[in-house]
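Subject: Predicted fold for G-protein coupled receptors family 1 profile domain-containing protein, 329 residues

User T.R. writes:
Posting the sequence so we have a shared reference for the thread.
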Amino acid sequence: METLEEAELCFPQINTSCKKQTRPQSESMVMYILMSSISLLTVVLNLLVIISISHFRQLHTPTNLLLLSLAVSDFLVGFLVMPFHILYTEPCWFLGDLVCVLYYVLNIMIVYASLLHMVLISVDRYVAICDPLRYSTKITQRRVKICVLLCWIYCVFLSFLFLCDNLKQPGRYNSCYGQCVINIIGALDLVLCFIIPVSTIVILYLRVFVVAVSQARAMRSHITAVKLQSSVTVTVKKSDLKAARTLGVVVAVFLMCYCPYYCVSIYGSDFISSANLFLVFLVYFNSCLNPLIYAFFYPWFRKSVKLIVTLEILRPQSCDSNMMKETTE
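User M.O. replies:
I've generated the structure tokens; pasting them so everyone works from the same file.
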């Protein structure tokens, strides 16, 4: 990578202005095209998920409601967070101190919402696999809606809590005019936004994995208990195991995208600043990957996308279409 060369001031009319840094035009062009393309793809793919689950009544299950809310947060990452991040990579910040703080408020709120939705999905799969007989009574649509609402409220509260000082006096941590710098207690961010939720996700899915493996072995061995069950019960269990596997892939990809940023941040601000652009965008890129995973594992999602693209959802009663015809999901 070429060394950035100093150029004129960001705001020549202001003595305290930051110095503008320039980068090779080819490098900037490639970066902007790549980041803009990923942002647009994230918006389109998650919009398809939102329309699919919202429109087709057969997809209104507790698990899919969690996926719907996760898709909303991923959509907002592509629609709001990524475009602002592209502007943030510019040598100078021209949108003012207040917009800088509000950008970080949106950033923390939306990205942390995605993280908490992963926790809720892990809890959903844990109950479905480890306590299947009481799943329908424990995990209801009403309870899921309440949990999703509380999740978003908590994320809004946490984002304002983290940036309270910055909101009181925007720009107080800038060393020169034209910067966008905020102050967050690193230890608090690491514990609340990474260690606690990620530990919860890993522990729950380890338990799900152990139970799923034991159930799979029991089915293959055709033990007496499995033979006595009805075919419907076995189908439900297979469906739950498949859903757990699919959402396990979602969680695994999520951890691969989030862990590098927080692991590197432990080494200090100097190290993280040098790799900040790539690691932060890797976190955002996870929002683009989730719909691709659905498309690969969920036949109902592929079918719904086909109906959306061909505009068949505009037909009367299209919301009652049978989306499970090709799958037991």
